[in-house]
Every structure is written in C-alpha cells, then in structure tokens.
UniProtKB/TrEMBL annotation:
The protein's name in its UniProt record: P-type Zn(2+) transporter
Residue span, P-type ATPase A domain: 144-243
Keywords: ATP-binding, Cell membrane, Membrane, Metal-binding, Nucleotide-binding, Translocase, Transmembrane, Transmembrane helix
Compositionally skewed regions (Basic and acidic residues) per UniProt: 11-23
C-alpha cells in the first residue's frame, strides 16, 4: 500500500514538467531556425557597421551570411523546387528564392538574409493565425465524448460511443456530456446547450423529448434511449458541415487565387524586363543597379498578404458566426448575405414558438359522440405541433386515445380516417368544403387557428388553437429593417386572419396566409422574377425544404435536430432565435469589409513601393515592409473577425 501511495505521489509533479518540456520543445521547433538566423544576421551587421575586424572579409563574410541564410532560406528553396517539379513554377517561394539569391549574387548579403528571415517570420505568424482559427472552431464543435455508459446484460458498461446501437439505453451523470442523440426515459433534467446553440441559458427536457449529443447534463442522473448512431448524430453532422465550410469559396476568394496565378508570372517577366530593357534606353547602364531594382520589385510583388489573409478573413467569419450559433455552409454564403435585400419568413416555428395550446373546444348542439377522443386518435401519430397540442389537451381532459384503424393525410387540408368504426375528418375549412360539410358560423369569426372535426360526415365541433410569438421576434424585425433589408414578407399555412394579425403586430411589410407548401414555392418564384432581389428564406427546415432550396440563401431556423435543415439550408440558425438573421447579415458585412480592407491595404502599399523600387528610390528594407509587413498587418486585421 505504502509503495503504491509513494509511486502515485511521485508521478504528479512530473506531469507539469513534461508538459512544460513539450511546450518549450514545440516553441524551439517552430521558432528556433528564425532565432538562430536573426542572431547570426545581427552579429554580421554589427561586424559590418562597427567593429569591421580584418578577418570579416571575403569568403568568411560571405560564408557568415550564408550561415545566417540557410536556417530560414533552405526550407523555402526546397518548397519552391518541389513546386517547380509539380509544374507550379510561379509561387511565392520562387519569388523569394530568386530575389534573395539574386541579392547574394550582387553582394547585398545582409538584405538577402533579412528578406528571407522576415518572410519566414511572416509565414510563422500566418500559420499561427490560421491554426488559431481552426482551433477555435474545433474547440467549439468537436465536443463529442470518448465514452458512453450503456446498459448491457443487467449492468452499465463503458464503451466508445461508436459501439452503441440504436435502441440501447445509456446513462448520463450530472456534469457529463451527452454522448449520443437519444429520447429521454427519465422524467426530466436541465441541460447546458451552449456548445451547440451558443445559448447560455440552460434548457429543460422532459420524458419523451429528444436530447442531442454535446449537451451537458446539469441536474440528475438520467437515462436515454439512443435514437441515432454516433456518426449520424446532429453534432457529428454539424461538425462535418463547419469543417467543410471552407471548401465553398466566396467569389472574392476565388478571384484572388486565380489572380495570384496570373499576377506572379507577369511580375516575374516585368522584373526580367526591368533588369535588361534599360540597357537600350539609359545612358551609363549598370547591370547591378537595375538587377537590384528588379529584385526589390520581386520581393514587393509577392502576393502572400492577399493569398493568406483573405481566406483567413472568411475563416474567421465562419468561426465568429459558429460561436453565435449560426452555421454557414461556405464563405460564398457569407458574401451573399451582404447582398440580401428581401427576407421571406415562415411564421410557425420561425417567428412563433410553434408550441400550440388548445384555447377552447366547441361542441355542436345535439352531438353526443366523444369527438375529441376521435380527433386525438387521428392526430396521435403526427409530430406536427398542432397535433401534439390536441393530444395533450385530450389527455388533460382524462380521455383515452385509441389507435386509428385507417388514416390518410391530405396535404394542406388535414386528415381523414377511421377510428372505432367511425369515419373521422379533422382539418381546416378547406377540408370541410372539399367534403361538403357545413361548419359553424361562429368558427369563421375566430382569429386564431381553428381545427374542424366531423364524424360520419356530420359536423361535430371545432377547436381553437393559438401559438405564441418568440421573445425576440419584434427585435428581429427591427434589426432586419435597420440592416438594410428592403422588404420583409411572411408566408404561412395558417389562417390568413392570424397571419395578418402577427404581421401587423411585428411590422412586417407583407403577409400571405392559407398557403399550401407548393403555394409558398410559387410565391418565392414570383419574387425571383425581379432580378434585383436577393432573397433569403427562413423556415423551420422540416416542411419548408423546397423553398429553402429555391431561395438565394436558405436559412433553417432551429434546425439543430432536423435532418432536412442541415441537408437543404445554406445557413443553419441553431439557437431558434429569429434575431440571429440580422446577426448573420452583420457578420457577413463585417467579414467582407475586412477582406476588402486587406485587398486595399496590400495593393495600395505594393503599388507605391513598386513605383519607388522601379525608380531606384526604395531599398530591400522598404521591400520587406511592403511584403512581410503588409502581410502581417492584413493577418492581424483578419484575426479581428475571430473576436
């Protein structure tokens, strides 16, 4: 026992030491060559400027600067050579290699080393910035637990989540992350959903509700029935979505990459021209002077600031949006969001909570049939919010709900079927009109949603069901108006009276109710005939998939658990908050602003210093600033987006 205790105690102090050793080793590996090169360069410059010892002449001086050059220059030369072998000649490695070797050839040894040293340091800063952006997104989303406690053979065993099958029961302790999507078997518990939705307020889930992988259990020991395999969970798919987002490039990013491929060979040939053509036009032509100008020209013209900082800006925008609970499927949609001038929204589940409650049930005179139980039986298999409201209300009335013998859904109208030998119709006014059933005149005066029920072709009664606006619905509409959206339109399958009432209370420009899914598509197609419109459609991602696909930007509201949302939408708003629509537009605009600031900065400084270099007024030191200095400034500007 004592020996074990001693061993255990002795091990703990070593862990921080090992971590420190690993950190210092990583630092030296990354920055070591730059530090060595800098020290040797500074010693050489000091010897040139002040001491001028007799031995520091000729080949010794050249060898000293070659020694300073190799730690930072050799890796760049190797990369350039490998690129040439692959057929990609005109790269930044090629430009830096030619410029610095040329500087050695004409005796500008300190400048040659300085250019390569600062270029290498710039590359390290670029890598650090990109890695930081990647780490931010990975830390945000890669939160899948490594183990799951699953109930097998009468006991709980710990296995990797990939080994758990659908239908098995898992246990999650307080403070643990939920390893897989599952249905609550326990009565209830609170969960921290911030890693998935960006929402800091805990959410309570009750028995029968779906809990998603990545949420943190806060209250008590719970059990879940697994509904999805590990690799099919919402979290896994969202992680994949964000990691692949950078593959879909914005037009600006695509243009810069194409531009760099054309631009680099052009400046190389211009540099060759700048070296030799003055021989025919200038008196007292000195080859070394014009070669030096050409080398400065090459250093300045390196497109690193553009090629690195612009993708980094978009990557930062995607990361910033992710932390706000907004998932962009690509940087092209960040760009497109800045041009959106028309926002079309679904009502239920987008601006309203989609949590319906039965306000009242009205039975017609002379009706003795328990029509409410029959209606609930018809709706018992549906996951629609109104269906859930009807079944919950029926249960609260203490009534039993039977299984329907037959059931047929009539899209945009309702249900028809058979329960306990009786023919039941349940749906909207259109269904009753279609079946030739006369409804109650009082129902037509109701503003809220009315569900009619008929039994054996006889009108039995109706239910009045109301939805509730989301807390930030009004704020969302105001923010969209302020962000420059020209027109806000609401489309709903709900009663037109309800739709118009909601639109008026929120300040929405136009609203259309009583729409079937295909009629929503027709409305958006009609809007798209105006080529000046850039349309974003916001829906719940379940039954709005056709319109999400049709719009210029499809945005799925609260689509975290919806397969249709993740598959169809271009942007997924995980938090279920309509105010995040305006946030997405703002992030898009800020990203584009930073990208264009970097383009302007890089081109502006380069053009000025190129002109000075060609005229013999700029040295290699100005060239270093125009290349590496501008690249670093652009990177620092792009990193702002991550905050």
């Amino acid at each position: 026992m004592d020996n074990k205790a001693c061993c255990s105690t002795d091990q703990h102090p070593d862990k921080p030491k090992k971590q420190e050793e690993k950190t210092s080793s990583s630092f030296l590996q990354t920055w070591g060559s730059g530090i060595v090169s800098l020290v040797i360069l500074l010693a050489g410059i000091a010897a040139d400027q002040w001491g001028q010892p007799a031995f520091f002449q000729g080949w010794i001086r050249i060898g000293w600067y070659v020694l300073a050059y190799l730690p930072v220059g050799w890796p760049v030369l190797v990369k350039g050579w490998k690129s040439i072998l692959k057929g990609d000649v005109f790269t930044e490695f090629f430009l830096m290699g030619i410029a610095t070797l040329g500087a050695f050839a004409i005796g500008e040894y300190p400048e040659a080393v300085a250019v390569m040293l600062f270029y290498a340091i710039g590359e390290l800063f670029q890598d650090a910035a990109v890695n930081r952006a990647k780490r931010n997104i990975k830390a945000l989303l890669d939160i899948r637990p490594d183990s799951a406690s699953v109930y097998r053979s009468g006991q709980m065993v710990s296995v990797h989540p990939e080994e758990v099958q659908i239908g098995e029961t898992i246990q999650v302790k307080p403070g643990e992350k939920v390893p897989l999507d599952g249905e609550m078997i326990s009565e209830k518990s609170s969960f921290n959903t911030s890693a998935l939705t960006g929402e800091s307020k805990p959410a309570t889930y009750n028995k029968g509700e779906n809990v998603l992988a990545g949420m943190v259990n806060l209250d008590r020991l719970i059990e879940l029935k697994v509904t999805r395999r590990f690799n099919e969970s919402s979290l896994a798919r969202i992680l994949e979505l964000v990691q692949n987002a950078t593959a879909r490039k914005a037009k600006t990013e695509q243009f810069i990459r194409k531009f760099a491929r054309v631009y680099t060979p052009i400046v190389t040939f211009l540099a060759v021209g700048l070296t030799f053509l003055p021989y025919f036009f200038v008196e007292n032509y000195v080859f070394e002077d014009w070669l030096y100008r050409a080398l400065i020209f090459l250093v300045i013209s390196c497109p690193c600031a553009l090629v690195i900082s612009i993708p980094l800006g978009y990557f930062g925008g995607i990361g910033a949006a992710s932390r706000k609970g907004i998932l962009f499927k690509g940087s092209n949609f960040l760009d497109l969001m800045t041009r959106v001038n028309t926002v079309v929204m679904d009502k239920t589940g987008t601006l309203t909570k989609g949590v319906f409650e039965v306000q009242k049930a009205v039975t017609m005179d002379g009706i003795t049939t328990d029509w409410l139980s029959l209606a609930a039986a018809m709706e018992s298999k549906s996951t629609h919010p109104i269906a859930k409201a009807i079944t919950e209300y029926t249960k609260k009335q203490g009534k039993e709900i039977s299984e329907p013998e037959q059931q047929e859904e009539i899209a945009g109208h309702g249900l028809k079927g058979k329960v306990n030998g009786k023919h039941v119709l349940i749906g909207n006014q259109k269904l009753m009109d279609k079946e030739g059933i006369v409804t109650c005149a009082d129902a037509a005066g109701e503003v809220n949603t009315v569900i009619h029920i008929a039994v054996d072709q006889k009108y039995a009664g109706y239910l009045v069901i109301a939805d509730e606006l989301k807390e930030d619905a009004a704020q969302a509409i105001n923010a969209l108006h302020k962000s420059g959206v020209r027109e806000l339109i609401m489309l709903s399958g709900d009663k037109n009276a309800v739709t118009q009432q909601v639109a008026k209370s929120l300040g929405i420009d136009k609203a259309f109710g009583d729409l079937l899914p295909e009629q929503k598509v027709e409305k958006v197609e009609e809007l798209k005939k105006d080529t000046n419109r850039i349309i974003a459609f916001v829906g719940d991602g379940i039954n709005d998939a056709p319109v999400l696909a049709l719009a210029d930007v499809g945005m799925a509201m609260g689509g975290l658990g919806s397969d249709a949302a993740i598959e169809t939408a271009d942007v997924v708003i995980q938090t279920d908050q309509p105010s995040k629509i305006a946030t997405a537009i703002q992030i898009g605009k800020q990203t584009k602003r930073i990208v264009w600031q970097n383009i302007g900065l890089a081109f502006g400084v380069k053009v000025i210093v190129l002109a000075l270099g060609a005229g013999g007024l700029a040295t290699m030191w100005e060239a270093v600033f125009a290349d590496v200095g501008v690249a670093l400034l652009a990177i620092l500007n792009a990193v702002r987006m991550q905050k």
